[in-house]
Amino acid sequence: MKTQLEILKITMKFNTTTVDNIVNFCIEFSQLQQMFQRLTCINDVEDLSKAVDVDEQFSNFLKNDEQKVMLIQGGAGTGKTIYCQYLIMQLLQSKLVVPVYISLPQLQNWEKQMVEETLNELRFSQTEILTLQQSKTQLLFIVDGYDEVRSYKRLYDPNGLLNWNCKALFTCRSSHLANDKFYYKYFISAKFELRMFADLTLVHFDDKQIQDYLQRFCAKLEQNSKLTPEWKSWKTYQNNINQVPGLRALVENPFILSMIVSVLPNIMQKHDTKQTLTSLDLYEAFVQQWFELEEERMYTNNVNTDVTNLQKEYRDYSYRLASKMMDSVKTVVEYNKDDKQNPWRQFFDQNDPRVTTVRRGVPLNISQRFYSFIHKSIQEYFVAKNGQKSIELMADAYDEKLLDCSINTHNIVDRGVFGFYSQIILRFPEFKHKLYQVIEMSKTNQKVSIAAANAITILNYANESFKNADFRDIKIPGANLSLAMMDGADLSGADLSNVDLQSAWLQKAKFDNANMKNVEFGQRAYVDSESFINKVKFNKCQDIFACANGYVQAYKAQKVEIYNCKTLEKLCTIDHHQDDVTGLAFSPNGKQFISCSKDNTINIYNVEKWQIIKSIPLDCEVVFVDYSKDGKYIICGSGRFVFLYSADDYSLINTFGKHYKNVITVEFSNDCKYFVSAGEGFFQVWEVESGLPVQTVEDIDNTIYHAEFSPDDSRIVCAFSDNTIKIWNFKSYDSINVLRGHASKVMCLAFSPNGQYLVSGCEDGTMILWDAKSFEIIKSMNAHVRLISSIQFLNDNETVMSGSWDGLVKFTSIKSVPLIKSLPGHAGEIARIQYSNNFKFIVSCSMDSTIKLWNPIDGSLIKTLFGHDDVVCAVSLTNDDKFMLSTSRDSQVKLWNMESFKCVRTFQLDSPSFAIDFHIDNQMFALAGFDKAIHIFDITKNLEIEYLEQDDEIMIVKYSHDCQKLVATGPAANLYIVDMTTGETVIKVNDFEMDFFDLAFSEDDQFVYACERPNPKSMRMWDISGKLIREQFSEAEYSEIFEAQQTSPDGKRVKIFKNCVQQTDANTGEMLWISGEYTLNMLGCSFEGVQNISQENKMLMEQYRKAREKII
């Protein structure tokens, strides 16, 4: 077998790319790239303030026997590949492990044979590969370019890495993983826990890194005798980088910095220093210089070469090659000169002198028979410039010859290309007009439909608004309009076949007579009950389903509605319970239906006539009911007992108890021999026949809301209040796994009929789909805006039915296409939102531990403030908006300078705080939280000056306008009014039941208002003595009092929509913009005469067309 040194040498030889005839820059560009600069990274992608050295993290990874996989992600040009090459050189010297570099784009069978194919390329025989695999030699597989194969497939297990004594390091662009917060599943084994995975994100260069690089660069120039008098000092480069507007902002990674130093002298000569430089300008300058120097070299060294129009040929060659590679989903091309049918012969034919001459002038890497551009972003730049050229020619003068260009033959899908198109639109405003011209041209010319589809997709990626656009008769098959803003757009008669409209905003849009074949809405038709839903349940054949909901006025889910599954038509309403319906079930034969309620009863109905057959009273609330799968038994949970009844005569067979605490959920095993009962801090497994417990697990720290047997009865899966799902072995009752991924309490679970999937519903409205064998996360879905109370798979194994407290029964497909873009937004639900006092920015704080500042004009993100380690509960601004306070569950209060956006002071507390408010003098603030007290701090003295003890936890605290009084409330629904002159609580009001969300003083500070937002019917008003003055308020009064801080003088209002910030017109309710990814909305759309639409999509559109005007 080859020695370790031989392996390393071969690895280095194979993977160190050489550039064929590198252009004679001031020094060779390849050398610039290989002047390696130490990189920094973050472990937490949400906190840029904690940058650490990549080498240190990698060293820790090698030393950590537990960690098996590392992912290094970052933007284009951040140095991922260069770092891989650097690592190989370092490991060659240290001999800690044997590195094997695997370039995914170069492989044919990377999905299953990436190791074997790479070693075969290194001329390892099968015997040598097997010997290496069985040896004790520890390998490091450096797997580069996951994003370049444009895949979302798992690598570790399919490639058999478990069979090797190895660690693995993967690289990937961050944008490729942007829409999947559980991306780690692509890189780790299904048998690994998350602690075995190290995740690093490369960050932008700081000033010191730039300075170090420039110093070494100038030293390299001097070594090569390339220094010129005017560019002899690294400070000259630094000063010019800082001088050109926009240039310093571009210096964010090794590749961009290498480009900048290579072209900076030319930029300073040719560029208007008053004009902001963009990355598009930089790429253009780099490519132009490359072509000019190559042309000069050809002219100087080879007089026999015709240099006429050579630069144009370089550019045309680059455009064609880059576009063909992109169309073929390749970043690396393999060319065998002996293959006469090779599709790449036109680019690499060595027998054609002119082809060879032109190829040598193009920025390519050539490694043996593999060809690629020197960087993927260079390829993307050429693709975008080629598309720009084609669009402009097509818009100016239609020519049949243009129909075969790439922009009109393939739908664009690459995010990097879209990024360049966005910059082209900003740099050349007339290009936007050309895109619209091509879209307009498609109305009368079907032949340009692909180009039109790409044009509208480019505009959508660039966040162009299509509000009220006249798109009648346009033809855009395959366009991606996900997350598009298209309110009021007229798409009548348009060809929208295969168009992606996921999460698009389409209020009052017109689809009349449009071709909507295979349109993807990412959503199915739903049921809107207009009240919160406690339970939903199918019958066995899934032709009808029942949902338990209630009456808005009563806040009770005491009625049951029966629906047709195909048409979603309501068949009947059952209204026999006197309190919340907590459980529903159909008998396996479909003839009977059962419900239970907090009114202490179980009702059994005849399905044919929906009449009560039997009502069974119990001594306390019934929280669960179900039939056994063989139809023999009815089981229910009530108090600390479980009751088993005969399904034939409804007689009581057995009583199981007394349980450790109240039972919340009961579930039969699939063979009907056992059942599990669970609740607050326990679960028990019982044998049905003997009536005896076979296992009891108590003293669990958290509440179990739902328990479920796996389809093969080998495992018990439980949903917990600590945001986890725990799995026990049914035979040994050992805890075998803990599933983490939810950000709030897990309320319900369901397995798919084929046993492949597990889906879980959460208190925050999200669903997570899990692999039922490996229990890895497959995807997360924002299904609802409130708690998901019930969940169930359809028989197709692809659709999930869910019921929620938002009043909706939804049908969600587990198979959906990734969205085209990521809009700036919070990763968690927003806690508070408000305008600044000068209305120049909007501030929001969130469960994702961040604070974000937004531009009120267009909704663009101004800044994200990091620093808290837990939910940011509230913020408060000084009167002049120069400072801001934030409070969090991490028991810290932070003071922010709003000019520098830096935290200037941190107050450490003894417990989490939820509410904060600045005093009018901007020198003091009030704070409250878990410890049942209101704290008054003096910022100037940096200490607490008053401690006002209350009876309950405080969630909201507000000063009066003159700061003489303070009002506070909490989850116990008590209202406290405090006289700040004496520090005494002058009144405590507790004559109401609801949990108030917001408080306010009247303008004269004589009255206090409270409400459960956004519900005007919950509004109350007291005078400052605590006397209740008024309970009924209009929508207008509510808005004037409680939405004033969210409404600007020009009538624009900001609202919270889950994890998004939304701005609307306060008078009309019309949405102006929204941040973050949001839910499909087609309220008021029209679709008369729509063609080729699926029945499901037609039902969905009909529902939206008729829906009442509310955000879903």
Automatic annotation (TrEMBL):
Coiled-coil regions, chain positions: none
Keyword Lyase attached: no
Listed CDD domains: WD40
Repeat region (WD), residues: 574-615, 697-738, 739-780, 823-864, 865-906
Record key words, sorted: Repeat, WD repeat
Highest taxon of the lineage: Eukaryota
SUPFAM superfamilies: P-loop containing nucleoside triphosphate hydrolases, Pentapeptide repeat-like, Tricorn protease domain 2, WD40 repeat-like
Entry-linked InterPro entries: 5peptide_repeat (IPR001646), NACHT_NTPase (IPR007111), P-loop_NTPase (IPR027417), WD40/YVTN_repeat-like_dom_sf (IPR015943), WD40_PAC1 (IPR020472), WD40_repeat_CS (IPR019775), WD40_repeat_dom_sf (IPR036322), WD40_rpt (IPR001680)
Ranges where the NACHT domain occurs: 69-155
Keyword Glycoprotein recorded: no
Pfam families registered for this protein in UniProt: NACHT, Pentapeptide, WD40
Cross-referenced PANTHER family: F-BOX AND WD REPEAT DOMAIN CONTAINING 7, WD40 REPEAT PROTEIN
Descriptive protein name: Pentapeptide repeats-containing protein
Organism: Hexamita inflata
